[in-house]
């Protein structure tokens, strides 16, 4: 049997095994009477291992494992270390609030705190645009890059992306969050085990030495010309993590689906532990690839895996990477469906609509839309840098609204709406017109300016009686 056939057979067998185990677990699950909570929050019955597994694999997908290794620099480990702080804030501050208000979406917290449905609508639209134009196409692109570089397949990126999209759509549209979380956990175990094996095989290949790798690639102290200058750790870095781990529906949805606050917190704490050791899988191989091949960017991880793993194991790893790609993609589809259905359709179109059917239609439209965006990311210098940079268009204005909702009782709804639009416009100015500082600094400035505008306008409104 040829290596290619062996790899393909193992890949197919493990992929089908995860699908079968997921189907079995879903079939025997207890279902909730509330259709929205059942489809979008797994009936609120996830135990902490599934919360942790789904949090881990939703985050560590192709855009992370390919993009971070593609940076070929130790500096990007800060994205993992900082995640621990974001998850801790989610567990201790935000999860109790989400559960107190029985939120189906994170944006529902804004409506409850401000007493205004319009704020929830604006933030939901910002999230949906971010998912459609940024997260979904990046996940498809990076997953396709990995498969192309690992198996050296002579297929266009868009064709491989279409295959991922079709399978991910099947999970999201027909299985709901329960199927996603269960498959995530199985694939997450495989990713941790085989991902660690990749690093060990790669280290053995280079004699357990990184000698020859430039010192600037082996430091956590970035200079002003690096992707993560040291001084950005003191400004916007923490807030990027608070947004991503604390307010982003794609992530928080898993914790909202737990059986209780305590169960959600246990899952989050377990995820924190994993995040502190994940650089062994998502950073170190990129440095080894630099020693072996030089600066080859986002091709680094797929090429390394293809070269250092034995054929039978590379087929298994391709299966778990494919699972990771599908995890992030179908998780984002499910979150987009939840935001549109609960925050927009049920409120403004038809309160009695079939949530499952509406969610499925949204998932199909988002799948088709994201596929058309994939070619735009093929010319990115660093996919992880690009992803973090463009996320600021909506992340900092949205985080400002959440921070005001949690910590400032006197904010006016109209002021928050204006602040959201102001923040998005300000960061767009910084991104496309004038960039005087590193984008992480500009994110912090955008956040502070947006909060200042909201607070100032709220005080003006209070004085005028509006």
Spans where pLDDT lies below 50 across 5 or more residues: none
Number of helices: 19
Distance between the termini: 76 Å
Q: What is the CATH C level class, in words?
A: Mainly Alpha
What is the count of β-strands? Answer: 0
* Tertiary shape: globular
Total domain modules: 1
Question: What order do the SSEs take from the amino end to the carboxyl end, as H and E?
Answer: HHHHHHHHHHHHHHHHHHH
Question: C-alpha Rg, in Å?
Answer: 22 Å
| CATH homologous superfamily annotation | Sodium/glucose cotransporter
CATH architecture: Up-down Bundle
Largest beta-sheet details = none
- The pLDDT mean sits at 85
User: What structural class results from the helix and strand content?
Assistant: mainly alpha
**The CATH topology:** Sodium/glucose cotransporter
Q: Could you estimate the helical fraction of the residues in percent? A: over 70%
* Portion in beta strands: under 5%
Structure characterization notes:
It is a single chain. By secondary structure, the chain is an all-alpha fold. It has a single domain, classed as Sodium/glucose cotransporter (Up-down Bundle), CATH 1.20.1730. It is built from 19 helices and no strands. It has helices spanning 3-27, 35-41, 48-59, 62-71, 78-100, 107-114, 117-151, 157-205, 237-246, 249-256, 261-277, 279-282, 284-293, 300-308, 311-348, 355-373, 383-407, 413-432, 439-464. Helix 1 (3-27) crosses helix 15, helix 7 (117-151) crosses helix 16 and helix 7 runs parallel beside helix 18. The chain is globular. The mean pLDDT is 85.
């Amino acid at each position: 049997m040829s290596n290619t056939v062996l790899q393909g057979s193992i890949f197919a067998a493990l992929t089908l095994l995860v699908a079968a185990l997921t189907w079995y677990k879903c079939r025997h699950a207890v279902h909730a009477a509330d259709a929205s909570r059942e489809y979008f929050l797994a009936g609120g019955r996830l135990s902490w291992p599934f919360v942790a597994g789904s949090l881990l694999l939703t985050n560590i997908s192709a855009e992370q494992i390919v993009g971070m290794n593609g940076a070929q620099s130790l500096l990007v480990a800060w994205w993992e270390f900082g995640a621990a702080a974001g998850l801790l804030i989610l567990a201790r501050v935000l999860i109790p609030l989400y559960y107190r208000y029985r939120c189906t979406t994170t944006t529902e917290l804004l409506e409850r705190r401000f007493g205004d449905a319009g704020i929830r609508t604006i933030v939901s639209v910002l999230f949906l645009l971010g998912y459609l134009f940024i997260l979904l196409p990046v996940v498809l692109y990076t997953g396709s890059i990995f498969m192309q570089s690992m198996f050296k397949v002579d297929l266009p990126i868009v064709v491989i992306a279409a295959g991922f999209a079709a399978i991910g759509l099947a999970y999201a549209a027909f299985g709901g969050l329960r199927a996603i979380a269960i498959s995530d956990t199985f694939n997450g175990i495989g990713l941790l085990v085989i991902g660690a094996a990749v690093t060990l095989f790669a280290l053995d290949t280079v004699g357990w030495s990184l000698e020859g790798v430039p010192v600037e690639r082996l430091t956590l102290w970035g200079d002003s010309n690096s992707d993560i200058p040291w001084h950005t750790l003191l400004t916007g870095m923490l807030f990027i993590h608070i947004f991503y781990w604390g307010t982003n529906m794609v992530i928080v949805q898993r914790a909202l689906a737990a059986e209780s606050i305590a169960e959600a917190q246990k899952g989050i704490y377990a995820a924190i532990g994993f995040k502190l050791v994940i650089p062994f899988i998502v950073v170190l191989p990129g440095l080894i690839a630099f020693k072996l091949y030089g600066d080859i960017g986002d091709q680094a991880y797929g090429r390394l895996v293809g070269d250092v793993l034995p054929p039978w194991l590379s087929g298994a790893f391709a299966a778990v990477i494919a699972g990771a790609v599908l995890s992030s993609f179908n998780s984002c589809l499910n979150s987009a469906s939840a935001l549109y259905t609960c925050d927009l359709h049920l409120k403004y179109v038809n309160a009695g609509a079939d949530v499952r059917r509406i969610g499925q239609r949204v998932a199909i439209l988002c799948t088709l839309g994201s596929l058309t965006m994939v070619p735009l990311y093929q010319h990115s210098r660093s996919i992880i840098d690009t992803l973090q940079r463009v996320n600021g268009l909506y992340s900092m204005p949205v985080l400002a609204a959440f921070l005001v909702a949690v910590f400032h009782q006197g904010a006016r709804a109209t002021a928050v709406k204006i602040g959201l639009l102001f923040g998005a416009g300000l960061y767009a100015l910084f991104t496309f017109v004038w960039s005087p500082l590193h984008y992480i600094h500009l994110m912090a400035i955008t956040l502070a300016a947006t909060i200042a505008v909201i607070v100032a306008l709220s005080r003006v409104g209070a004085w005028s009686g509006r």
